[in-house]
Every structure is written in structure tokens, then in C-alpha cells.
Amino acid sequence: WVKLADKSIAALRAWRTDQLRERVLWGRAWTDTGFAFTHEDGTPYHPAQVTARFERIVLGGSAPPEQLPANVSCTYGLTETGMVTYVPPGIEKPGSCGLASPGFEVSVVQPGTDLPLPPGEPGEILMRSPGMMKEYWRNPEATAQAIRDGWLHTGDLGNLDAEGYLYVADRRDDLIVSGGENVYPAEVESALLAFPGIEECAV
Q: Which residues pair with 38 in a beta bridge?
């Protein structure tokens, strides 16, 4: 089933991505299911054709691009935690994954020392919440490495602004050090996507 924007429920007798795609494209549906939007010949819809048919789209899973349609907002979360941050409706913070969700605390610290960093300074993202995971199943070593002093070390890099909005840069393991400078693949991707003629890229 899918929940429509008018609060009604549209039931599907069997899982058919073509039916769900049709309802989303020509109706006003809400779904958290992932699938590809393609024409009958298999060619993909342009993203603008899809986003224009939604009242609200929420992104998650990677660092967001700087420029997004007005009806697209971002969240940040992990399997271990659920949704850690969100962008409140009506707030425009390009590139941000939002404020800490109710019940969550978010901090950005210096990797290796866990010392809190001032606003705008990039570091490792930490979070804690009564609702986060207790441990990795039968893996005390991984648990001890990830959870220290009650804070979950996400392995993600980012920064907080003065208002507490989170900006995610990249995975710590993906960081490229070149000439003594930190280079984030997501920033390189955003720069490339700004060029006309480039629709998608990966670094």
C-alpha cells in the first residue's frame, strides 16, 4: 500500500513497481520504497520530472548536494540509531541535514581526541540517544570501539553551524589527503555536478 498526500490509502494487490510508479508519477503518493523511475523503453526520467510530482521528498544516505529543489529536504541517520537529524518544514539550509531529532544529541569532535570542536570546524560526528543500539551482536570489540562514554562514533565527517544544523562531508574512511589538504569526495562531486552537461558522477 501507499499513503497518498490526501491521507487516503491506495492498496496494491501484489507488489508491482510499475503500478506504484504510475501512482507516484500521476497521483500524489507517499512511499519510503526505493526503485528506479524509468520510461517504458527503460530510459530514466530526468530527476526534475520526478521531484515535480511530489509534495515533499526526504533524502538520506549520503552527503546532500548544495542545490536541491524546494520540496526536497535531508535527514541524517544510521542503522544503529534511526533518524538522527531532520530539516524542519519551511527551513532553508542548503547542504544541511538539519537539527538533532527529539531525544538525540549530536556533537562534532576532533578525531582521536574526542574533543568538541567549535561551529564550522570539521570533525567526526558523534551522537547519543536512549533509543540508539545497545551493542553489536556478539561483537564486544566493535561495540567498545563504536560506543565510548555513551557516545556513538559514526565514522562520518561533518560540522555543526552556530544554530546546531549538521553538515555531513563524507565518510572518514573516504577522506583523501592531498598536499596536506583534506579533500572530501562529496565536495568534488558537487563541484563536478555544477558543470553543464554532467548529470551524475562518483568520486
A: 44
pLDDT tens digits, one per residue of 35-63: 455 566 767 666 666 666 666 777 777 67
Cell of 103: 531525544
Residue 108: exposure state from Cβ atoms within 10 A (0-12, 13-18, ≥19): buried
Q: How far apart are CA 200 and CA 187, in angstroms?
A: 14
Residues 134-179: tens digit of each pLDDT: 999 999 999 999 999 999 999 899 999 999 999 998 777 766 777 8
Residues 6+ apart with CB under 8 A from 198: 192
Is the separation of the CB atoms in 127 and 81 below 8 Å? yes
pLDDT score at 130: 94
Residue 143 to residues 12, 76, 127, 198: CA-CA distances in angstroms?
41, 21, 14, 41
Largest CA distance in the chain: 58
Task: State which amino acid sits at residue 147.
Answer: I
Pairwise CA distance, residues 167 & 108, whole Å: 10
Burial class (CB in 10 A: 0-12, 13-18, 19+), 4: middle
